[in-house]
């Protein structure tokens, strides 16, 4: 159970990180001695690092169109969620937004094409696009393999974090996705 929870927390940042932690001698000692997760948390530097990593995830916010956004020094980085990339399937083309374009929240800024469909990319917040991930032009599959890291789509300069604070946090987004999945089943 704990392994599943740790993997779930770490895998959005990469399987290598999760596997590295789970293969440490400290983790092996934890399992072999039958220690409780609470005792291991006290004894393990790796788990303390994991706690810090989990806090970083809470800084990602989500738009109801399945774009994510993070902010550092008034620069927002935007991409599509893991949920969105799974729904799309194999992504084969990305139309990147125009650099220096001023956008408002909910503006269409680009397009993602997959083997299943084509979907617009929306801006989750207002600002000026200052950089695009040109790697996606030749490697659109990065949106599938690394949606929260190498698969970011664009960066934008934002006037304030007010709109960001109104987006869904990780917990609310997960509930939103579960509701959508439930609705699509009916």
UniProtKB/TrEMBL annotation:
Keywords: Lipoyl, Mitochondrion, Transit peptide. Residues 75-157 form the Lipoyl-binding domain. It is found in: Mitochondrion. One of its GO terms (biological process) is protein lipoylation. NCBIfam families: gcvH, PRK01202.1. The glycine cleavage system is composed of four proteins: P, T, L and H. This is Glycine cleavage system H protein. The gene is 107364053.
């Amino acid at each position: 159970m704990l392994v599943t929870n740790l993997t779930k927390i770490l895998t959005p940042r990469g399987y290598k990180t999760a596997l590295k932690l789970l293969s440490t001698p400290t983790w092996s000692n934890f399992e072999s001695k039958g220690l409780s997760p609470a005792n291991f948390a006290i004894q393990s530097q790796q788990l303390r690092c994991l706690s810090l990593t989990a806090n970083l995830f809470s800084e990602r916010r989500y738009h109801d169109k399945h774009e994510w956004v993070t902010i550092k020094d008034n620069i927002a980085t935007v991409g599509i969620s893991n949920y969105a990339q799974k729904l799309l399937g194999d992504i084969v083309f990305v139309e990147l937004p125009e650099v220096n374009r001023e956008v408002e929240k909910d503006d269409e800024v680009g397009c993602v094409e997959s083997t299943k469909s084509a979907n617009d990319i929306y801006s989750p917040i207002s600002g000026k696009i200052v950089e695009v991930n040109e790697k996606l032009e030749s490697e659109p599959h990065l949106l599938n393999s690394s949606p929260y890291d190498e698969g970011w789509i664009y960066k934008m300069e934002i006037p304030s974090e007010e709109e960001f604070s109104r987006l869904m946090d990780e917990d609310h987004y997960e509930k939103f996705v579960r509701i959508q999945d439930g609705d699509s089943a009916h």
